[in-house]
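Thread title: Can someone regenerate the structure for this chain?

I was given the following input by a collaborator and told the matching structure tokens would be attached. They weren't. Posting the sequence so someone can regenerate them.
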Amino acid sequence: MTLSKSLSLPSQLVVRQAAHISGAALLAVNPPDTGWAADLAITNSWHWHAGYAQQWPQTHHFGATPPTGSFDGAILWLPKEKKLTEYVLAALADLLPSGAPLWLVGEKRSGIKSIHKTLQAPWGPAQKLADGNHSSLLVTHLSAQQTSFNAADYLVTKELPQPPLSPLQLASYPGVFAYPGIDAGSAMLLEHLPQFKAGGAVLDFACGHGVLGAWLQRLQPELDISYLDVSAMALAACAKTLELNGLSGELIAADRLHSELPKYSVIVSHPPFHTGQATDYSIGQQFLQNARQHLTNDGELWLVANRFLPWPELIEASFGHCERIAQDNKFAVYRAVNRAVNRTARSKPRRGRR
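Best answer:
Regenerated them for you:
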């Protein structure tokens, strides 16, 4: 197997230690890349990250629950969230046969050093196979197959007051942003969202459990709201949030604003700036560079973000202006409108209103 430097560090370790991994029908779980799999018998992969799934050329499954099928074992790229790891281990214990091996790989800062605290029966103790690339490769075995996994057992619901309406019912699964409730930034944005034009199309970008869109939809039932997120766990939670509140909307699995998406009259978002453990500005940058193209004339962008992020400059570069609606010592709410502007006359962008 040829080692590619474009692979993630854990995947590079899998390539180097492939001799430790065997089986005629293996399931890859949460792999961020594909170039490591050439000499292994991977018959399917399970992704809850839409971007990872799209680059996978072989058979793959995107969803909050694993694919059906028969597997001799699995390789798990350890997620950063402990609760999500527990969820995935329970799902795999229901899927794999008794005695099946499960290889665990991850960066040392991602929690793999403490995985022994998470592994519980029916999983046996983890044996370290190798260290390298700031990562570790371990193996555990399933002592006895469990047949009791039900994703609904991991669903958590919270009430969010929404006067004068009844409380908004929020559903969440492990791995969803701000699990199991709402973060302070999104709460600030909700305080400042206005009444929008009736009948408009709204996109909740990086929707998580759907709190922004559902909040708006309850206040203005005539709005046509779509929900976009990269995470299958988030989309499953969002679907449940809509169900609990008697709402409906289109769910879109994507890691960016792709060209096939239509134009919206409003886009609301609390855009992420992490991929796994790493700080990753690319998602927010791509979103802000393309948001204007997906807004109708006079369409509005509303977002909240940590104040240290360079989003105001990107918004001004795209829209020609950026209005700071509110701020505290951590977050700021920004607004921009898609209007024709002459940006060539300015040598540098103006600062948002403070």
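Confidence is low (pLDDT under 50) at residues 342-354.
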